[in-house]
Amino acid sequence: MAIKDTPEEWTVTATTTPFTGNKTSVRTDEVVMPDGSTVTRDYQVHPGSVAVVALDDEGRVLVLRQYRHPVRQKLWEIPAGLLDIPGENPLHAAQRELYEEAHVKAEDWRVLTDVYTTPGGCDEAVRIFLARGLSEAEGERFEVSEEEADMELARVSQDELVRGALAGDLHNNCLVVGVLALAAARLGEGLDALRPADAPWPARPFEA
């Protein structure tokens, strides 16, 4: 039997949205269980995100250090951002985030992996890209604000990031998943065997 996630949708008898925020909301569903009982499930409704493992010619990954208020920490992360436009091509969103957060462009794009960040309580889906052939973007730098105005930028080797993730020193979901996926891909069929940048993404369908 193939180990593969499959679509399924249990019956919902009622749904409400007790909170609506600027980017996300909270939904409450009454869900029918296999035994016929009904339970309440609260979860965050999220537009989806993209993230980028940007790998330079020296084998270093571009990372950013940013304050994250909910966890009261400055976290090392990879460039990432929301899918602000419904149906937006995730590659276009990833290219925008790499430009805005790091003023970098890339020649070669692949899909590294797709994940649900916290499927027990949120429907956020993230597509993590691998970007290679990096160079500085043209024009003026994007003007950042709020937490992003305090960001630090660094280029760190894959091995150092893997060690940090396994040692419990690095905690950002996309960074940890991204660098471990990068290491696994290199040990497997190689980076050129990764899916193309426009590979289908059922969790967040998009137009080419």
Automatic annotation (TrEMBL):
- Recorded protein name is NUDIX hydrolase
Q: Which residues form the Nudix hydrolase domain?
A: 44-183
What is an example of a GO molecular function annotated in this UniProt entry? hydrolase activity
Matching entries from SUPFAM superfamilies are given as: Nudix (SSF55811)
N-terminal signal peptide: none
The root-end lineage is: Bacteria, Bacillati, Actinomycetota, Actinomycetes, Kitasatosporales
Please name the Gene3D superfamilies in this protein's record.
Answer: Nucleoside Triphosphate Pyrophosphohydrolase
* Superkingdom: Bacteria
What are the entry keywords?
Answer: Hydrolase
Q: What species is this protein from?
A: Streptomyces decoyicus
Keyword Electron transport among record annotations: no
